[in-house]
From TrEMBL:
Residue ranges of every copy of the Tubby C-terminal domain listed in the record: 110-388
Domain annotation F-box: ranges: 49-91
Organism: Arabidopsis suecica (Swedish thale-cress)
Name of the featured protein: F-box domain
PANTHER family, per database record: TUBBY-LIKE F-BOX PROTEIN 6, TUBBY-RELATED
Top-level taxon of the source organism: Eukaryota
Pfam name, any one: Tub
Biological processes annotated in GO: regulation of DNA-templated transcription
Amino acid sequence: MSLKNIVREFRVKNKCKAIGRRGRSHIAPEGSSVSSSLSTNEGLNQSIWVDLPPELLLDIIHRIESGQTLWPARRDVVACASVCRSWREMTKEVVKVPEVSGLLTFPISLRQPGPRDDPIQCFIKRERATGIYRLYLGLSPALSGDKSKLLLSAKRVRRATGAEFVVSLSGNDFSRSSSNYIGKLRSNFLGTKFTVYENQPPPFNRKLPPSMQVSPWVSSSSSSYNIASILYELNVLRTRGPRRMQCIMHSIPISAIQEGGKIQSPTDFINQGKKKKKPLMDFCSGNLGGESVVKEPLILKNKSPRWHEQLQCWCLNFKGRVTVASVKNFQLVAAAAEAGKNMNIPEEEQERVILQFGKIGKDIFTMDYRYPISAFQAFAICLSSFDTKPVCE
C-alpha cells in the first residue's frame, strides 16, 4: 500500500472514531454536516468495512438485529448503521418499521405508526419544577430501571394566549433551531383546543391553492405542519366524570383502519439546516392556516367509562397498566360515526384501544399506543391532558 493510501485510511479511521465518541449510539441525520462530509469523502469508500461481501454483511446485521430486541442492547443495531454508507443502507433494509416489528430503533421510528397487534408500552415522567415531560420506552421506572430508553422530551412554555409544549428528541435541548426539534403542541386560552404541529411535511403530496403554498425562500426549520387537533368538551353543568375529548388526525385517513387499509410511513428526516431556493412546496403549513391534509381524517374519541357502584367511581379496563384514579386517565378508540355519517369501521376496530394514558404514581404516567398513530402523535395527545382545564372538569 502506498504512503498516500495509508494516510488517507488513517484520516478516515480517526473521523469515524470522533463520531463514535459522542456518547450515545448516533446516526447522523440525512443531509446533516456530518453525513455530507462523510458522503463526499472518497476515502470512506476505501475503508476495510466496505470490502465485506454483501451476503456476509447481510448475515451479520440480521444476527445482530434479531438478537438485540431490547434497549440498551439494541444500540448495536444503531452502531451498524453508523459505520459507513453501505452498512447504513443494509441496516435500513433489515430493520423493519414499528408497524411490522413492534420495535423502535431509529429516531424516524418515532414518526412511524405503531404495531397493529400488541401496543408499544411507554411511561412519562413529569418534572413540576422545570415543566419538562420525558417519554421513556418501558413498562415503568420500577421495572425498567436504567434500561429505559429516552424517546422524546417536552417543555411547557407559558404564553399570553395559552400554553405551548415544545417537543424534542433530546432531554435538555428545546431550541427550535436545533436538529433535535421535532414539533410542538399549542393550546387556546381556555385549554379546550390543542393543535399538534410537526416540523416535517406529511409523507405524501397534496396540491394546495396558491394562497396556501409556502414561499421558496422560507426555511423548513421555521415551518409547521398541522397534523392533529384535540378538542375537549365543555362541562357547563359541572357533572361528575372524566373529561370528554376528540382527536382529529389530519394526516391519517379513515381508510387506514378499514379492512385492508394502509398508511404511508416517513422513511427519513428532511434536512432543516440549509436555506436554499426550492420550488413551491406541496404541503399544508399550520402557520398559514392549513387544516386537513386528507379528505376523511381519522377521528378518535375517548372510550366511555362505566360507573362502579361499589367503588363509587368511573372505571375503565386498563389491564393493570393504570393504578391511580385521575381525571387525566383516558382510552381512545376510533369514532364509528361523525355528523350522522357512517365511517364503515369494522366492529373489532371500534373496540380496539389505539391509545391509553393513565397515572401509576406521583408524576409517573403510562402511555400505550398502537397503529395507526405514531409515538410523537401519542405523546402530543397525552401532553394535552396535563394542561389545566377548569371549564372541562
